[in-house]
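Thread: Newbie trying to understand structure tokens

Hi all, I'm a second-year student working on a class project, and my supervisor (Dr. K.) asked me to get a predicted structure for one chain before our next meeting. I've only ever worked with sequences, so writing a 3D structure as a token string is new to me. If someone could post the tokens and maybe explain what I'm looking at, I'd be very grateful. Here's the chain:
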Amino acid sequence: MSRRLRTLSVSEAEFQALVQEALDSVPEPYARHLANVAVVVEEEPSPEVLDELELESEDDLLGLYQGVSIDKESFFQAGGQLPAHISIYRGPILRLCRTKKEVVQEVRDTVVHEIGHHFGLDDDEMPY
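---
Reply by user tm_fold:
Sure, no problem. This is what the structure looks like when written as tokens:
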């Protein structure tokens, strides 16, 4: 897949709003399980994340779920775990997409994909 050299102009605020719109579109039965999940926009995945996931390029990662999925949560788990955390990476998404319409769709798909991990779905079980 050929990557674009020029990034679309979507401001940080616009991108944040697209992520929020995607979150707001999650149906209530699922949305209530996201109350304690931090969703943040980051410009790029860190070198540490890329190393941990054995990825060569930051363009290979559009979002990341970190935490214990709700299907694995247990009353008997040891305390002190950080809450679940979803990162959405603005730079890779903007470099992937050719139009603003594609950005809107990719943000939605990435948010839904990472939320799927919170519910215990593996990559091959995702709708996107």
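A couple of things are worth pointing out once you decode it. The mean pLDDT is 87. Residues 12-72+80-120 form a domain with the Zincin-like fold (CATH 3.30.2010.20). Feel free to ask follow-ups in this thread.
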